[in-house]
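Reviewer comment 2.1 asked that we show a complete input and output for one of the modelled complexes. We chose the copper (II) ion case, as it is the one discussed in the main text.
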Amino acid sequence: MPARALCAISALFVLLAPPAVAETLAEAGGLVIADGSARAAGAAARSGAAYLTLSNTGETDDRLVAATSPAAERVELHDHVVDDGIARMVEIESGIPLPAGETVSLEQGGMHIMFLGLTDAWGGDGVPVTLVFEQAGEVEVTLPLAAAPSAAHGGDHHPEHDSHH
Ligand SMILES: [Cu+2]
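Response of the prediction step:
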């Protein structure tokens, strides 16, 4: 890709970025992985969710096909759907498409990386995750751990932990 195009994209990104600095976690191929965070579903939760921004600055479509982590027994790619006014999570079986030139955000209330059965590797300096891309291959990142949400409201409780009303 010409350097000029990269500059244009960077400039745009800076303009659109929130006041909190967008922190790049990793780059691989044309992919830029930024703004990562992970949080447990609650103080005593055995599940958690992670969010990040995936920018495909390359010229080839890519796809996030899976994620693995020693911090959980199972890691799945999830989305939220609303059935009869009730939000629930579904696994994204086919992965998350990352079209060339586009930025895809995994954020609260939307797509996320789901951690089921948290292990001792969850916490401390962050949550280690290996992202598996169709084109870019495996990319390791460490996602900063955010405080668990209050019990009042949270969009990412796994159903069996969702005890609020
Ligand atoms: Cu989920």
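The chain has a mean pLDDT of 83. We note this here for comparison with the apo prediction described in Section 3.2.
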